[in-house]
Structures are given as C-alpha cells and as structure tokens.
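Field log, afternoon session.

UNIT: design team B
ACTIVITY: writing a sequence onto a fixed backbone
BACKBONE:
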C-alpha cells in the first residue's frame, strides 16, 4: 500500500512539476504575494520529490537486505540538506529563483537534478556491492533504463530545457518496482520465487517452446547460503553454464533452472560435484528433457519429488519410462479429483477388498480388515501404496474413507454372521472438525450392531492434536465401535498415547513377527511387550503371518487374532462370505 501511494504521489507531483516548469517562465510575477505563492508551490513539489527519492533508497536497501545504520543516517542527512537548499533558494538563488518578475531554473544547478544523480549513484553502488547469485536480466533492464535516463538528462543539459526531467526519474523507479514485484523477486537470495516460476512455465507451454527443466535440491541450503563465498561460487557456476535466464527458488532448499534442451548437462554435473567436494554439500539434480506429460509447475515438481525418492544417483536425467509412469500418476490424480467431486459413496471405481482374520480361541475366521483398491479405465487395479499418498497430498483421502466405510456397512448389514470388519483411518483425517459428523451420517443409515464395525488408526499423532483425536475416538467407542491400533512396532508408537487413547485391539506389525523369529533376544522383547498389553486388557493381533512357524510362535505370545497370507491374501469383499465362521 505504501509503494502504491508513493508511486501515485510521484506521478501527480511530477506531472504538476512539469506543468509548473513549463508555464512559470512565461508568466509575469508582479507582486510579493505572487512571488511567495510561486516559491511555496515550487518548494512543496520539489521537496516532495526529494523525500520520495530518499524513501526509495531505503526501499532499495530493503530489497537487497542491506541494513546499515551509518548509511541510513547518511541518506537522512542528504535528504534534509537538499530539502533545506530548496527552502533557502529564495535567498541563495541556487537552482530556482525569481528576478525581475521572472522565474529562472537552469539544468545543472537544479537542486533536485543533483539529488537525482546522487540517487542513481547510491542505487548503482548498492546493487553492485550486494550482488547475489543470478540477477542478470535485472541488471540488464535497470542498466538500460538508467542509461536512457542519463542520455535524456545530458541532452537536456545541452539544450538547457526541463521538459523530460520528470520522465527521467519516474521511468527507473517504475521499472524497478515492476521488476521486483511483478516478477516476485526473492530478495534473500537473488532469485525469483515459485509464483514467477509458475508464470514462466505457463508462458513456455503456451508458446510451445521446448525446454529442459532442471530441479536442484540442496538440503539445508540456508546453512551455507549466508557465506559470501557461496554466492560467488554460484555466480561462477552460472557463468560457466552460460546461463542467461532467471534462477527460481521454489522453497528454501529447492531451485529450478530452465535451459534449451541442448545445454551441457555433463558440465553441470561436474560443477555440482566440485561444489560438493568444496562444501560437502549433498545435492539432487533431476533433469527433465522433451516433456509433453507435465502441463503445470505442480506436475513438474511432483514428478521430480517422485523421482528423487527412487533415484539412486544425485544427478539423474529422466528417461521415457519415467515419463510413462508419471503419465499414469497424473491419470490417477485426475480420477481421484473426479471421485472427490462426484461425492458418490457407491462409486464403482473404489473397490473394497478384505483380508480374513483368524480368531485363535474359536479357530475360525470371524473378522476381517477392509482394504482399498481403485479400478480405473485403461489402468486396471491400482494398489494403496500408489494412490493413498496422492489422495493424502491432494486432500482427497476423506472421500475415499467415506466410500469404503459406506460399502463395508452395506456388506455387514447384508451379512449379519460376520463378527466384525475394520476400516482404516488416517490420524490427520480424524482431526478434521467435520470428521465425526460425516462418519456418523454414514453408519446411521444402516441397521446393525456397531460392535461389528472397527476403526483402525496408526499412532502418528502430534501432541497438539492428541486431545481432539482422543475425544473423537472415545465418541465412536461409546457407540460400540472397536478401535484398533495399527502398525504397532513400526517406530511411531508412543506408549503414553497408547495408554490414553481408547484402544481395544493392538495390531503387532509384520516387522515384529519377523524380528521375533530371528533371535531369542528379539522374541523375548516382543513376547514381553505382548504380555504387558495382554495383562492390561488389550486384545493382541499379529499381522503378516506367512507360515506355520510364524503362527506357532505368535500363538505362544498371547495371539488372540492372526492375519496374513498363510490364511488368505486380500480378496474382494463379495468373496468374504466363504471365509466367515470357517476353519483354516
């Protein structure tokens, strides 16, 4: 808002000043009153412009993060000195004065003009001394603008005219404001931010330009970015790469560069390896060439982040298979968005699979865990490890939960012989204020004993969310729904939280089952953990049972329920009936 107001003031003041300078020399100034009004008008306009330029220098200091008390005081003193010179021009006749009923103002003695030249000098010195990594286009644009302005002033000095003076100081200021703000310039590092990057990608796509997208991830970059030597090294990096475009900073640790497809990526790899040797700086560089799959910045970043998790190299160039796989991911994302928009709790694209669970006391399959699958045209069956992270990242997970819950409830109502089917929930989903209301509306549509329904949660809750989750789960438990703690033993579980959250059944993860079979020490630890939970009235379920050894070992460690491929892989919920109350 301040910049807008200041810019408006500059425009109006400079326009008025131009009119004033144009007509003042042609008008007779006869009386003392005319003289005082003329001086007052001139002083108001000129001092306003002098102060504006002083403030603009502070604005430049802020843009380049240059905060120096001595420099600030120097600018304040200079602004005050030139303002006083304008005020006293009635006596000193420096720059502007009135004599013999005429007003005179000559170019080189114009106080504001001298102040403007000082302003240009301070600006130039500041930008050069605070040079960051890549601002080549900004240097070029501002340099050309200032050069044009100086040429105009020189021309005016030769011709002894004032017509374009206002234009010469307004033009650089407006250009600087436009470059630094419309392009989302990141002043902390000398790069443009993600807004500018998104706009750049959109422009390249609209113009059908072929380009290479270079994704650079430098973990903990801020720890070395404050070193002046670092910025100099990166300046050299761009020089060697003959890079002429903007560097974009997507976030603290991630940068993006765009090149023509024929750039020297072998040289880039060598330069990054040199930087790594110098700073022990880890990095991941991913290069996307000839890409017609990604349409937006989000697509490019998602692709790079996905490759980053899989690639074994710190410098990776995408191949055709990578793009084909990502094309599949984009189709899945599109389908997930459509599922979320449709809000159809019977959506046929969301399939319910179930894995039967053995009750060790009855030696029968009495319960089951429900699992999600997607069936999409052209893609076939999609497994949770692919679509669940996408759904969570794009806030589509809740609709999937509602769909699978609705289908499970419908099955339980039609198959009263089933003892229980559990449904998985995300802990972060439960923190949503609408979660209880949405889930209750679904289960209230069906008529069955809510003891037949279980909710599985993974204990990854943050302390700030604990009370909300605890309250929500307690409300469901009061309805008769059983609460399972899933994946116990995967490294996330907090014993304090487990004792406070209303849990009925603790599911020991497959990793603990495997560990207990590897050594007596591991078996002793797992067995004692199960004793603790069993003796404090928790039911114990072991998942990942694959053979008789697993089964026998877990039976000796308080196993009340067993689940795994030894008994059955996940099957469509429609086939679950053949397992209900059957022996293994």
């Amino acid at each position: 808002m301040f910049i807008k107001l200041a810019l408006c003031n500059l425009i109006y003041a400079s326009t008025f000043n131009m009119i004033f300078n144009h007509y003042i020399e042609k008008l007779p100034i006869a009386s003392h009153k005319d003289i005082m009004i003329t001086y007052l008008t001139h002083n108001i306009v000129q001092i306003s412009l002098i102060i504006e330029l002083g403030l603009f220098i502070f604005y430049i200091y802020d843009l380049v993060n240059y905060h120096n008390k001595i420099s600030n005081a120097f600018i304040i003193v200079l602004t005050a000195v030139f303002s006083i010179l304008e005020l006293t021009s009635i006596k000193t006749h420096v720059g502007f004065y009135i004599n013999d009923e005429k007003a005179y103002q000559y170019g080189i003695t114009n106080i504001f003009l001298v102040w403007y030249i000082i302003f240009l000098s301070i600006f130039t010195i500041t930008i050069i001394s605070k040079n960051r990594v890549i601002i080549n286009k900004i240097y070029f644009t501002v340099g050309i603008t200032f050069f044009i302005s100086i040429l105009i002033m020189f021309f005016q000095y030769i011709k002894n005219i004032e017509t374009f003076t206002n234009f010469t100081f307004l033009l650089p200021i407006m250009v600087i404001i436009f470059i630094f703000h419309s392009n989302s310039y990141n002043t902390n590092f000398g790069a443009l931010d993600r807004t500018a990057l998104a706009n750049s990608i959109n422009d390249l796509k609209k113009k059908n330009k072929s380009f290479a997208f270079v994704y650079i991830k430098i973990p903990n970059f801020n720890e070395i970015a404050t070193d002046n030597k670092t910025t100099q090294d990166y300046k050299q990096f761009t020089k060697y790469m003959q890079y002429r475009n903007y560097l974009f900073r997507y976030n603290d640790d991630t940068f993006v560069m765009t090149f023509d497809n024929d750039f020297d990526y072998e040289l880039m790899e060598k330069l990054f390896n040199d930087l790594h040797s110098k700073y022990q700086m880890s990095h991941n560089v991913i290069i996307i060439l000839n890409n017609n799959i990604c349409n937006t910045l989000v697509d490019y970043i998602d692709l790079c982040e996905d490759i980053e998790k899989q690639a074994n190299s710190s410098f990776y160039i995408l191949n055709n298979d990578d793009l084909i796989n990502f094309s599949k991911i984009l189709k899945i994302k599109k389908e997930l968005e459509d599922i979320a928009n449709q809000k159809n709790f019977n959506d046929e694209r969301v399939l319910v699979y179930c894995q039967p669970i053995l009750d060790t006391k009855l030696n029968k399959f009495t319960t089951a865990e429900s699992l999600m699958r997607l069936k999409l045209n052209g893609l076939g069956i999609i497994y949770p490890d692919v679509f669940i992270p996408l759904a969570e990242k794009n806030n589509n997970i809740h609709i999937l939960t509602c769909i699978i819950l609705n289908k499970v409830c419908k099955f339980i109502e039609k198959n009263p012989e089933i003892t229980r089917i559990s449904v998985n929930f995300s802990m972060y989903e439960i923190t949503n204020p609408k979660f209880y209301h949405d889930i209750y509306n679904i289960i209230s549509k069906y008529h069955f004993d809510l003891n037949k329904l279980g909710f599985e949660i993974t204990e990854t809750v943050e302390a700030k969310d604990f009370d909300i989750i605890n309250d929500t789960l307690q409300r469901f438990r009061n309805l008769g729904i059983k609460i399972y703690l899933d994946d116990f033993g995967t490294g996330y579980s907090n014993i304090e939280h487990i004792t406070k959250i209303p849990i009925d059944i603790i599911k020991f993860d497959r990793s603990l089952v495997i560990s207990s079979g590897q050594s007596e020490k591991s078996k002793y630890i797992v067995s004692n953990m199960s004793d603790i939970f069993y003796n404090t009235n928790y039911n114990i379920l072991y998942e990942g049972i694959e053979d008789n050894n697993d089964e026998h070992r877990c039976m000796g460690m308080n196993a009340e329920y067993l689940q795994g491929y030894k008994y059955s892989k996940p099957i469509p919920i429609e086939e679950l009936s053949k397992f209900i109350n059957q022996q293994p």
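LOG NOTE: The chain is about 55% helix and 15% strand.
NEXT ACTIVITY: expression trials, pending approval
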